[in-house]
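for the writeup, i need someone to sanity check this before i put it in the appendix. the sequnce is what the collaborator sent (i think, or maybe the updated version? ugh). structure was predicted straight from it, no edits. if anything looks off just tell me and ill rerun, i have time this weekend
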Amino acid sequence: MQAVILVGGEGTRLRPLTYSVPKQMLPIVGTAMLERVLDNLSRHGVTSAVLSLGYLPDRFIAAYPDFVIGGMPVSYAVEPEPLDTAGAIRFAALHGGVDSTFIVVNGDVLTDLDVTALVNFHRERGAQGTIALHPVQDPSRFGVVSSDDNGRVLAFVEKPPREQAPSNNINAGTYVLEASVIEEIEPDVRVSVERVTFPKMVSAGSLYALTDSSYWLDTGTPDAYLQAHVDILANRRPIQLSPARRDGSWVHSSASVDDSATLVCATIDRDCVVSATAHIESSILLPGSYVGPAARVISSIVGAGARIESGATLEAMCVIGNNEVVISGSRHNGARIGGAT
């Protein structure tokens, strides 16, 4: 079975990390987010994928020039201009020669969804399209779905006010679609699958949905991106790591951590340096970053190649851009440091 992976977004909420790196290429405990997404799909019979590229497409192609990502064969469909979600699905599916049932996923959603069960449900219902749903407390930031007892979708409402949401089951960003859906998407224009394609399918009675309460996380914000790491380190999302977790933190084998440094629920990626008496807590150091003596990094993200000089303090969700320098002794609370380069 083929999959279309939507990875065209600019990741604006994760800036400055995403000025030069697509968010789906940011690592999740040492492994690119995109690879973790494809890993779950491969466990459920997906054998190849088409990446729908829009933002910084050359970064994907340069990182995976052999057209294999995490062991899965891929092809690259680079949009000539933004086509929105349905337009991107159509463009990528045609590029990849999709001619039968296929999977669509958002490349910035981490989930342990049982895709096999979703496909089986889709086929049992004779559906044209099936949406994976996930229950949340506040559905106002998502597409909200209500369905009947058989799973047929009755309403699809994009980002309703919380008090007007027809249910708390949201569009979880994984779809099973028949190839016939591609033919119904208008070509060469911007078309939203959530606002145009799915509502049309609801009217035709051909859209179904299945609720799944397995692990699910939209990583589009710094808080959520950090949460993805914390969940793995706390074993809320069991994932085999190499090297293994140590005392609730993860340190890449190429990183250097001084014996007097303190790590608490920390992710220290490749080629990082953590100096004497530094304190890293509930934070991520991306590849090649440096934390100086007696510096403190708490609930923050340090970009690749960035330097946190001696005695500096980051806390309350600071996000430091790639190759930025935080000067010695400075203190930052909730800051975002760095711009486009």
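The first strand starts at residue 2 and ends at 6. The radius of gyration is 21 Å.
thx in advance!!
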